[in-house]
């Protein structure tokens, strides 16, 4: 591969990764807003007395720790947990070193881990709503909206967690496409026994260009 090709390829991979990270960034904001609105309709029902622990059934209890002010996970009521969570997410989203606002600013190396933690904690709010407040959601006629938001959330997190596999597939397909476009003319020439000299294991640019020209003029 020539240096130009390698540079172009690196740019291509960086571009795809950047698009992926941008989609994570926008989606984190969207999902945060959706959960905020959904939970906001339940604040008068999700109280410390009704929900003394942040849980999704007896087997799943969630404790709070932000790693800065509260390093050791503490048991809190569901509304307190959601309060802590929303404040924490808002702080993360407002931190320009984590979520760059200016175009072209690189994402930090730990960006994926931060977004993963945001999504994991937002999932806990969905789990709590479904387990403890679904009947209230039904009575408020919000179940269709809740289900749509949750499906969107689950689908996106599933796709993004497998996104690097998809990116690799795209890269392989693009590489094959590039090879086909670049070397197909030579294959044509080989078929017609009009092969140019092949020097070592590197095809000089001039030979390739000649082959490409001839491949389009074969009769
Ligand atoms: Zn609750």
UniProtKB/TrEMBL annotation:
Gene3D superfamilies: MOB kinase activator (1.20.140.30). Residues 1-27 form the signal peptide. InterPro entries: MOB_kinase_act_fam, MOB_kinase_act_sf. Keywords: Membrane, Signal, Transmembrane, Transmembrane helix. The chain crosses the membrane at residues 153-176. This is MOB kinase activator-like 1A. It comes from Nelumbo nucifera.
